Amino acid sequence: MEFFWQNLPFFCILLCIASASFTLIMSRRAAQATCLTVISAVIAMSVLLIARVSAFGGSYTFSMGHFPAPWGNEIRVGLLEAVMALGLSLIMLFSLLGGLDRIGEHVFADKHNLYFITFELLLAALLAQVYTNDLFTAYVFVEIMTLTACVLIVARSKGRTLVAATRYMIMNLMGSGLFLLGLCFLYDLTGHLLMGNIHEKVAQVASDAAYGRVLTVTVALMSLGLAIKSALFPFHTWLPDAYGYSTPTSSAALSSLVSKGYIFLLIKLFYRVIGMDVINQIRINDVLFVFGLVGTIMGSLSAIREKDIRRMVSFSSVAQIGYIYMGIGMGSEAGMVAAVFHIFVHGAAKSMLFLSTSGLVQVSGESKHFRDLRGSGFRNPLAGVAFTVGSFSMVGIPFLGGFISKVYFAKAAMMLNPTRTVIVLLVLAASTLLNTVYFLKTVITLYRNDSADAPKHRAAPVFALSMLCMVAANLALGVFSQPIIEAIRAGLRMFA
Known about the structure:
- This protein has helices at residues 2-6, 8-23, 28-56, 79-106, 112-131, 135-154, 159-190, 195-206, 209-229, 239-244, 248-274, 276-282, 284-305, 309-329, 333-362, 376-379, 381-395, 401-413, 418-446, 461-479, 481-495, and strands at residues 60-63, 74-77.
- The chain is an all-alpha fold.
């Protein structure tokens, strides 16, 4: 029985990969059902794993096939990994359900099976990054996730998506190359690939002045690579086109899942591989802190200037990713807890924003310009409500997840030195004001027209289910945040 529990993460990853192998030869309906079933099974296994880890009260590592390193591979499971796997799986399920009714419009009929295969492989890559205890295995699945994300962008097969995919691939391959180069340096320094073994060796190397600069360069290369891939300002130039011109489901998955997978790997790198003491010592976190602060403001300023609603939501992601890096850059447990919680908040809200935007555009002659979206909240009430809830969460209205995130960022800032405290609080205030400007402007536009008696669009059942679940998730993150925060805090301590 113990063997079964320990292998649950492996079963999740293997199920996704195995189903992708068979989905290609299925009918479209069977492929769709298989993909949804696999994601649901991963959710169920993640719930079981959370219950088991909570009862066990600690983390564990498990050697695949019982072969020790370097011949075997290793997974590590703690409370944070299990919670992260559950959150990512739920968001993927809601994202896929929310866009199912429009996949036929945007993806060629003979490519539907490939589209579902891509989601299965994306989930496998995300889970592998969450659970693996081997740094090179993490890199392998980083590349798989890069390729699947590129497929999600080009699935629409239009000129703009091809250009967006090309820009995405160029920037992300640059990030992958930097990460791999840093990984090679780290292996040369330590002689290990397992995270725990590297951590022990780094503690010795960091105290040796002869290797201090090499270690700093190594960590900087790996951090920069993941920052590029997760669209931290100013490496975000690929993001607006990639998110803005993809299918609704692709945009929801790219914004809420792919970038978060890279950020979670960076957190594992800091805690499990290098150690937060060393990170604070070489001051890499200070660089991320500055870029996070600047990105929070610049992303919002870019969003304000947009006249295209999907690109506006895309630039908003740059600002929200800035929040996450600001929390990571604080270099404290409180800042990291706020950052991880915001991963869930942003994932739940941004996926809903992209999907609801699709519903609003659908009843506005497929136009994404604000002038044509007037009154669309009346024409598609469910999409209008969902967009409003997501917008209010990003602004930080009480009882929603975004409000709790900003409260915890502010509390984390109060534990820093006075100068940093003032800077963070001013940036939070300025960013909230900017968020209010462009999100509130958009919500007013959706209900600006005298279209209360306009014909109501009948939403597809799967879209309605997805929107209702996401609205509930955003409310749950705001009202029932404390157990999630405590799970994140306990999981980070297991990391350390």
